[in-house]
UniProtKB/TrEMBL annotation, chains A, B:
Annotated organism of origin: Glaciihabitans arcticus
Keywords: Aminoacyl-tRNA synthetase, ATP-binding, Cytoplasm, Ligase, Nucleotide-binding, Protein biosynthesis
Subunit structure: Homodimer.
UniProt superkingdom: Bacteria
Full protein name: Aspartate--tRNA ligase
EC number: 6.1.1.12
Span of domain Aminoacyl-transfer RNA synthetases class-II family profile: 138-441
C-alpha cells in the first residue's frame, strides 16, 4: 500500500515528513504562494508551496510551482512534504509545506456544479459523491447496519440470503419484473417475505437479511425506487405483533445510538440535524384511533378504503411528536381489507390484523406483522384475496409440515437514512438510484 | 414472546418447572413410558411421560399419554414440565418430565427421508434444513460474515449496495439475464464490479458489499449457481495486487478464527472437519510456475489457452498442502489473454496481469486484481477484447475525472462454506439453490 497518512489523522501526527493522497478540492495560485486543498475519504487539508524568487524578486525556475499551476480540480495525487501544526490554519489547524507532488490521475473539468439539477447530479453520481455531505449518508449506513447486525448476531439470529429469482410473485402481480430464465420466465423478488418465513418451519428460530428487493412501480415520488435495500427479520414463538414491535424498536435504538456516537457531530455540522436516540416503548396507536386523531386535527383522509395516506402519516407523526416528543410512531391493527393474506387476523375480529406500520418523521419506513401459520386459515385468507392456492402451493407447503407461530418486519434502508438526515428524497440516500427512467450509471 | 428456555440452556438451568418449544424429532411410545425427543434451533432434549396405571396394572385415563400417542414427527409444540438433571440421559444429561404439551402446529408426514435424492431434498428444502448438519452451514455463514464485516468496519471501509439492475453487461454478454424494464431492457448484475470501482473516483477510499450476483450459466456442475452471494471489497491507493492479497488473507484469518472459536466443535462433530485457521502469508505461485509444478506432478492441463482447469487447481492445492501445509494458495499473474479488460497489466510485460485467483481446498473461490485506472490504457484494453468503448461509456467516465489506483476481489460465499465443510456441492451451502432448472421453492 502507498504509505499515506489519512487526513483525519494529521492533527494527531507529529510535525515533520508526511505523505497524503487524495484529490484536489480547490487551488489558490497566488503570486508568491500556492495553496491546494486536498481531500481524501476522511477529510481535507491545506498544501502550501511558497514560490521561488531571486533576491531581487525575479521568479526562479520552479518545477513544483509549474505542476501546481497546471493542476485541475478533481485530480488525484500523492503529496509529500513537511507537516506543520499552526492554529491559524482554519482547516484542521495543520498545513503541509510541499516537497513533491505526484499526479496519479488527471481530471477533466467536472460536468456538474453545486447548483446542477438533481437529475444531472445523478448522471454524474460518482462526482456528486465527492461532496462530504453526500457521502456521509453511506458512512452512516455502514454504522447503522453494523449495529443492527451486531444486535442480531449477539442474540443468535441467523443471516440468510434468500433468492431474488422466483417462480412467482412474492407480493402483488402488479409491480413485478419479469426475467428471461432459460426456457421460461422468472420474477424478481419484491420482498424476501416467503423465504424468510420458510426459515421458521425450517427450525432456524430467528433470522435476518439485508438485501435488494425490486418493484416495477412506475411512480415518481420522492420515496419510491424500483430497486431498494430491504432490512428484514423474522422470528418464531411470538405471541403477537407486539413481540415484533419490541424487537423492532430495540434494533432502532441500537442503530441510532451507534449513529449518534460515531457521526452525531458531523451530521449536525453537515445536515444541521440532531440525531435523537429514540426512547422505548415507541408510541403505539391503532390505525382506527389514528384516523380519529388526524380528523380531530382537521384532516380527513381522502380514501375509500381503511388505509392512511401520506398526509395522514405526516399528521399522526406531528401528533406523536407533540404528545410524546417522539419521532417514531407505530400504527397498529390495520384492517384485513388492506393487508396481505399472510397477515394474521385478530382472534375474534377478523376485520383487523396483528400488524403495524412504523412511521418515522412522518413517513412509513416499515411494515411488520404476525403471520398466519394455520394452513386452513391461510388458504381461506388467500382465496378471499382472490389468489389461487395452486399458484402459492410451494409457499403453502411451508405450513403443512409443522410451523411455529412467527412474525417479522421489512424496512426500507434508504427511507430510514433519508428521514434521519431530513433529505428531500430517497435518491440522495441511495448509492445509485433506480427508477422507471433511471438505469444509468 | 412465549416464555421458553432454549434447549442449549437446559443443562445450565436449575431443576424444576420449565417450558421448551420446538418440533418433534422422534417418538418412542412404550408400554409404560413415552419419550419424545424435541428439537429447537439450539439443540434437542428428551421429554418423558410415565403412563398412569392402577395398582393392579390396568391403564388409567391419561389425556397427556393420548396426546403423545397421536403426535406426528415434525409437529411444533410447547412442552411444560419438570427439568431434571440425570447424567444417565445421553441427550445433554437432562430430561423433562412432562406436565403438559400444547400442540401448536401439526405436521403431515414428511415427504423426504435421509436417503432421499439431492433433488427431492431440494424440493423440500425447509424440511431438509431441520437436520442440524444441514442448518449448521448458515450459523457458520452468519459468524463468518460478521467477522468479515467487523474487520471492514473497524478499518473504516464503507458498506455499499450496488444496483442489481443494469443498463448493460458487467462481465460477459454470454451469461446475462435480461429483464423487462418498463419500455426497455435491463440486465441483472453478474457482479458489482463496475459499481464497486465507481466508489474509488467517488473518493470512498475503501468499500465492501455482500450481495447477490446473477449468471445465466447453463452448466450443471457441483460449484455453479445462477444466483449466488458475492463477497466484494475494493480499495484505493494500492501499489499492486499484492496489497489486495494481504487484505484478502487477513479477512479470511479473521473469518476462520471466528468460525473455529464459535463452531469448531460442532463442525468436528457433524462434519468430521477440523477448522484450520490459515497462517499468513498464504503461499503465492505465479500461474506459469503453477502449471510447471502441476506438469511435474504428471498432469498436463488440457487447455489451449493459458488458464488452469479444475483438475489443475486440485493438483496445485495438493502441492501447496504438501509443501506448505496450507489449504489456501494464491495463483498470481494470470495471462492478459484470459483476464477481463479492466485488470491492470504488468509494467513492462503486457502479457501478464496484476491479478490472482485464490484456491481453497482445491477449488477457486475468488478472483482479485489491481484495476487499470489509466483511461487511455483502459480503452485500448477494452478494444483489444473486442468491446465497444461506446457501450462502456458510463463506466469509462469513472476514469476521466480523476481516479486513484485501486483493486479488490470478489469471492463466492457458498463456495467458501462448501469447501470449508467439505460438502459435495454448492447446493448444500446455499439457502435456496438456483440453477438452470431450479426456481422452486
Amino acid at each position: 500500500m502507498t504509505e499515506r497518512t489519512l487526513i483525519k489523522d494529521l492533527a494527531a501526527a507529529s510535525d515533520g515528513a508526511i505523505s497524503v493522497s487524495g484529490w484536489v478540492d480547490t487551488i489558490r495560485d497566488q503570486k508568491k504562494v500556492q495553496f491546494v486543498v486536498l481531500r481524501d475519504e476522511s477529510g481535507a487539508t491545506q498544501l502550501v508551496h511558497p514560490k521561488n524568487f531571486a533576491e531581487d524578486g525575479t521568479p526562479l525556475a520552479d518545477e513544483l510551482a509549474d505542476t501546481i499551476s497546471a493542476l485541475t480540480v478533481g485530480t488525484f495525487l500523492t503529496a509529500t512534504g513537511e507537516l506543520k501544526h499552526d492554529e491559524r490554519v482554519k482547516l484542521g489547524g495543520v498545513e503541509i509545506k510541499l516537497d513533491g507532488l505526484a499526479v496519479v490521475s488527471e481530471a477533466a473539468v467536472s460536468p456538474i456544479a453545486e447548483d446542477s439539477s438533481g437529475d444531472k447530479r445523478m448522471d454524474w453520481r460518482f462526482l456528486d459523491l465527492r461532496v462530504p455531505k453526500n457521502s456521509l449518508v453511506f458512512k452512516v449506513q455502514t454504522t447503522f447496519l453494523h449495529a443492527l447486525r451486531t444486535y442480531w448476531v449477539e442474540r443468535d439470529f441467523i443471516e440468510i440470503h434468500t433468492p431474488k429469482l422466483m417462480a412467482s410473485a412474492s407480493e402483488s402481480k402488479a409491480e413485478l419484473f419479469e426475467v428471461d430464465y432459460f426456457e421460461r420466465k422468472a420474477y424478481l423478488a419484491q420482498s424476501p417475505q416467503f423465504f424468510k418465513q420458510m426459515a421458521q418451519p425450517a427450525g432456524f428460530g430467528k433470522i435476518f437479511e439485508v438485501g435488494p428487493a425490486f418493484r416495477a412501480d412506475p411512480s415518481f415520488t420522492s420515496r419510491h425506487a424500483t430497486e431498494f435495500t430491504s432490512v428484514d427479520t423474522e422470528f418464531s414463538w411470538i405471541d403477537s405483533h407486539e413481540d415484533v414491535m419490541k424487537v423492532h424498536e430495540e434494533l432502532l435504538v441500537a442503530g441510532f445510538q451507534a449513529i449518534k456516537d460515531k457521526h452525531g457531530d458531523e451530521i449536525k455540522a453537515l445536515y444541521d440535524v440532531d440525531v435523537v436516540v429514540p426512547t422505548v416503548p415507541f408510541p403505539r396507536v391503532p390505525l382506527a384511533e389514528a384516523k380519529r386523531i388526524v380528523a380531530e386535527r382537521g384532516y380527513e383522509v381522502p380514501r375509500a378504503d381503511d388505509d392512511m395516506d401520506p398526509e395522514g402519516e405526516r399528521q399522526i407523526a406531528a401528533w406523536a411528536l407533540e404528545t410524546y416528543g417522539h419521532e417514531f410512531v407505530f400504527l397498529t391493527d390495520y384492517a384485513s381489507s388492506i393487508r396481505p393474506f399472510y397477515h394474521m387476523r385478530h382472534e375474534g375480529d377478523a376485520a383487523l390484523t396483528n400488524s403495524y406500520d412504523l412511521i418515522f418523521n412522518g413517513v412509513e419506513i416499515s411494515t411488520g406483522a404476525q403471520r398466519e401459520h394455520r394452513i386452513d386459515v391461510l388458504i381461506e385468507q388467500a382465496k378471499e384475496k382472490g389468489l389461487e392456492p395452486e399458484e402459492l402451493d410451494f409457499y403453502l407447503d411451508f405450513f403443512r409440515y409443522g410451523v411455529p407461530p412467527h412474525g417479522g418486519f421489512g424496512m426500507g434502508l434508504s427511507r430510514v437514512l433519508m428521514l434521519l438526515l431530513k433529505m428531500p428524497n430517497i435518491r440522495e440516500a441511495t448509492y445509485l438510484f433506480r427508477g422507471p427512467t433511471r438505469l444509468l450509471p
